[in-house]
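Encode chain A's predicted structure.
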Amino acid sequence: MSLPNPEVLYARLKEQIKHAYPNRNEIGLIGIHRGGAWIAERLHADLKFALPCGFLDSALYRDDFSERGIKDDLIPPEVPFNVHNRQILIVDDVLYTGRTTRAIVNHLFDYGRPASIELAVLLDRGGRQLPIDAQFIGKHHQLAENQSFVLSRDDQGVFKLELKEQSE
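Encoded structure for chain A:
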Protein backbone atom coordinates (compact mmCIF):
# COMPACT_ATOMS: atom_id res chain seq x y z
CA MET A 1 0.00 0.00 0.00
CA SER A 2 1.24 3.43 -0.91
CA LEU A 3 1.17 5.82 2.04
CA PRO A 4 0.18 9.46 1.64
CA ASN A 5 2.95 12.04 1.93
CA PRO A 6 2.48 13.69 5.36
CA GLU A 7 4.08 16.94 4.16
CA VAL A 8 1.45 17.23 1.39
CA LEU A 9 -1.29 16.45 3.94
CA TYR A 10 0.10 19.11 6.27
CA ALA A 11 0.06 21.68 3.45
CA ARG A 12 -3.62 20.87 2.74
CA LEU A 13 -4.52 21.12 6.41
CA LYS A 14 -2.65 24.41 6.77
CA GLU A 15 -4.51 25.94 3.78
CA GLN A 16 -7.92 24.87 5.14
CA ILE A 17 -7.18 26.44 8.53
CA LYS A 18 -5.68 29.57 6.96
CA HIS A 19 -8.90 30.21 5.00
CA ALA A 20 -11.22 29.32 7.89
CA TYR A 21 -9.46 31.61 10.36
CA PRO A 22 -8.32 34.76 8.53
CA ASN A 23 -7.95 36.50 11.92
CA ARG A 24 -6.04 34.13 14.17
CA ASN A 25 -5.58 36.57 17.05
CA GLU A 26 -8.13 35.00 19.42
CA ILE A 27 -7.95 31.31 18.45
CA GLY A 28 -6.55 28.93 21.07
CA LEU A 29 -4.52 26.16 19.45
CA ILE A 30 -4.18 22.89 21.41
CA GLY A 31 -1.99 20.04 20.13
CA ILE A 32 -2.56 16.48 21.35
CA HIS A 33 0.68 14.82 22.40
CA ARG A 34 2.68 13.51 20.40
CA GLY A 35 1.88 13.85 16.70
CA GLY A 36 -0.83 16.46 17.15
CA ALA A 37 1.54 18.60 19.20
CA TRP A 38 4.12 18.52 16.40
CA ILE A 39 1.51 19.56 13.84
CA ALA A 40 0.14 22.29 16.14
CA GLU A 41 3.65 23.70 16.65
CA ARG A 42 4.18 24.00 12.90
CA LEU A 43 0.70 25.46 12.31
CA HIS A 44 1.34 27.98 15.07
CA ALA A 45 4.61 29.10 13.48
CA ASP A 46 3.47 28.96 9.84
CA LEU A 47 0.09 30.69 10.35
CA LYS A 48 1.27 33.06 13.08
CA PHE A 49 -1.41 32.42 15.69
CA ALA A 50 -1.25 35.27 18.21
CA LEU A 51 -1.79 33.19 21.37
CA PRO A 52 0.85 30.71 22.53
CA CYS A 53 0.25 27.10 21.54
CA GLY A 54 -1.05 24.70 24.19
CA PHE A 55 -0.54 20.96 24.57
CA LEU A 56 -2.56 18.22 26.27
CA ASP A 57 -2.13 14.48 26.79
CA SER A 58 -5.26 12.32 26.78
CA ALA A 59 -3.88 9.48 28.92
CA LEU A 60 -5.56 10.28 32.25
CA TYR A 61 -8.90 11.24 30.68
CA ARG A 62 -9.48 8.20 28.47
CA ASP A 63 -12.43 5.90 29.09
CA ASP A 64 -10.11 2.90 28.61
CA PHE A 65 -7.57 4.13 31.20
CA SER A 66 -7.91 0.95 33.30
CA GLU A 67 -6.94 -1.20 30.31
CA ARG A 68 -4.16 1.04 28.97
CA GLY A 69 -2.61 2.10 32.28
CA ILE A 70 -0.28 5.05 32.79
CA LYS A 71 2.36 5.65 30.14
CA ASP A 72 5.97 6.08 31.18
CA ASP A 73 6.18 9.27 29.15
CA LEU A 74 3.11 11.13 30.45
CA ILE A 75 3.38 14.76 29.37
CA PRO A 76 2.28 17.53 31.76
CA PRO A 77 -0.49 19.76 30.37
CA GLU A 78 0.42 23.17 29.04
CA VAL A 79 -2.45 25.59 28.37
CA PRO A 80 -0.84 29.07 28.39
CA PHE A 81 -4.01 31.07 27.68
CA ASN A 82 -7.50 31.55 29.12
CA VAL A 83 -9.81 28.89 27.62
CA HIS A 84 -13.07 30.43 28.89
CA ASN A 85 -15.23 31.82 26.04
CA ARG A 86 -12.43 31.26 23.52
CA GLN A 87 -12.63 29.47 20.18
CA ILE A 88 -10.38 26.39 20.44
CA LEU A 89 -8.80 24.39 17.63
CA ILE A 90 -7.64 20.94 18.75
CA VAL A 91 -4.98 19.39 16.50
CA ASP A 92 -4.18 15.68 16.21
CA ASP A 93 -2.33 13.48 13.76
CA VAL A 94 -4.85 10.65 13.22
CA LEU A 95 -8.57 10.43 13.96
CA TYR A 96 -9.79 6.88 14.49
CA THR A 97 -12.36 5.93 17.16
CA GLY A 98 -12.84 9.45 18.55
CA ARG A 99 -11.89 8.42 22.10
CA THR A 100 -8.71 10.51 22.24
CA THR A 101 -10.61 13.59 21.08
CA ARG A 102 -13.34 13.00 23.66
CA ALA A 103 -10.70 12.68 26.37
CA ILE A 104 -9.02 15.92 25.30
CA VAL A 105 -12.34 17.79 25.28
CA ASN A 106 -12.99 16.55 28.84
CA HIS A 107 -9.48 17.62 29.87
CA LEU A 108 -9.93 21.03 28.22
CA PHE A 109 -13.02 21.75 30.34
CA ASP A 110 -10.78 21.61 33.43
CA TYR A 111 -9.41 24.94 32.14
CA GLY A 112 -12.74 26.65 31.44
CA ARG A 113 -15.71 26.60 29.12
CA PRO A 114 -14.70 27.33 25.51
CA ALA A 115 -17.04 29.24 23.20
CA SER A 116 -16.48 26.52 20.58
CA ILE A 117 -14.18 23.62 19.81
CA GLU A 118 -13.12 22.43 16.37
CA LEU A 119 -10.82 19.58 15.36
CA ALA A 120 -8.04 19.43 12.75
CA VAL A 121 -6.37 16.12 11.83
CA LEU A 122 -3.73 15.10 9.34
CA LEU A 123 -5.49 11.78 8.62
CA ASP A 124 -9.01 10.48 9.23
CA ARG A 125 -8.80 6.71 9.02
CA GLY A 126 -12.48 6.00 9.70
CA GLY A 127 -13.73 3.50 12.28
CA ARG A 128 -15.42 5.95 14.64
CA GLN A 129 -16.91 4.61 17.88
CA LEU A 130 -18.08 8.04 19.06
CA PRO A 131 -19.95 10.79 17.19
CA ILE A 132 -16.86 12.94 16.66
CA ASP A 133 -15.81 14.46 13.36
CA ALA A 134 -12.98 16.73 12.26
CA GLN A 135 -13.70 20.05 10.58
CA PHE A 136 -10.24 20.18 8.96
CA ILE A 137 -8.74 17.03 7.41
CA GLY A 138 -5.58 16.48 5.40
CA LYS A 139 -6.98 13.25 3.96
CA HIS A 140 -9.49 10.45 4.55
CA HIS A 141 -7.63 7.14 4.32
CA GLN A 142 -9.32 3.93 5.46
CA LEU A 143 -7.23 1.27 7.19
CA ALA A 144 -7.92 -2.26 8.38
CA GLU A 145 -8.55 -2.65 12.11
CA ASN A 146 -5.14 -4.25 12.69
CA GLN A 147 -3.31 -1.36 11.00
CA SER A 148 -2.39 2.09 12.24
CA PHE A 149 -0.56 5.15 11.02
CA VAL A 150 2.53 6.24 12.95
CA LEU A 151 3.67 9.83 12.49
CA SER A 152 7.23 10.83 13.29
CA ARG A 153 9.45 13.78 12.45
CA ASP A 154 13.14 14.12 11.76
CA ASP A 155 15.61 16.59 13.27
CA GLN A 156 14.55 19.28 10.76
CA GLY A 157 10.86 18.83 11.68
CA VAL A 158 9.90 17.03 8.45
CA PHE A 159 7.03 14.61 8.97
CA LYS A 160 7.34 10.93 8.13
CA LEU A 161 4.50 8.40 8.02
CA GLU A 162 4.69 4.65 8.55
CA LEU A 163 2.12 1.88 8.56
CA LYS A 164 2.14 -0.39 11.60
CA GLU A 165 0.46 -3.80 11.57
CA GLN A 166 -0.56 -5.52 14.79
CA SER A 167 -0.53 -9.31 14.75
CA GLU A 168 -3.83 -10.93 15.66
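The mean pLDDT is 93.
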